[in-house]
Amino acid sequence: MGSWFEELPVGTVVHHAITRTLTETDNVLLTTLSMNPQPLHLDHEFAARSEFKRPLMNSMMTIATVVGLAVPELTLGTTVANLGFGSIEFPKPMFAGDTLHVVTEVTKARLSSSRPGVGIVEFRHDGYNQHDELVCRAFRSAMMHCRPADEAE
């Protein structure tokens, strides 16, 4: 189960337990499903002539996995809706075979002014590769349920 709004005060830091190695299959599936013909993701010969010398992991795969790895501890069954992203950065590339791990910090939290029983939380999700290099930073806002009265601590 994820966390209730009350369990997510500003400054909360979560080192997510689940990690994920991204594969070439992941990259090809996401890239083709999203109709992205970018040869840097799909064409080994093209990518070999790039500065990276091999295909890049599609950045949409990276951000989706970073957010997904945060779900069990944060939003699983406790979120109303994802409200949006403030910014997303990819300071280093990911490649097939790289393993992601994620650390999240709560940067903002407030009760909703228009909806009773919910709060708005901003998360900063930092995704790191197996060398502890930052590969993705995303600021995400989510509407979170407050703890139900019948589940008081």
Note down, in words, how this protein is organized.
By secondary structure, the chain is an alpha+beta fold. 23% of the residues lie in helices and 34% in strands. A hairpin with a 6-residue loop joins strand 4 and strand 5. The longest helix is centred in the middle third of the chain and has 16 residues, at 59-74. 25% of the residues are buried. The mean pLDDT is 96.
CA gyration radius, whole angstroms: 18 Å
What's the end-to-end separation, in Å? 15 Å
Q: What is the share of helical residues? A: 10-25%
Structural class, by secondary structure, is alpha+beta
Count of alpha/pi helices: 4
Give a count of the beta strands, DSSP E runs of length 2 or more.
Answer: 6
* Poorly predicted runs of 5 or more residues: none
- Mean pLDDT reading: 96
Percent of residues in beta strands: 25-35%
Biggest sheet, open or closed, and with what strands and sense?
6 strands, antiparallel
Pattern of helices and strands? EEHHHHEEEE
Q: What would you call the shape?
A: elongated
Key terms for this structure?
elongated; 153 residues; six-stranded antiparallel beta sheet; alpha+beta; single chain
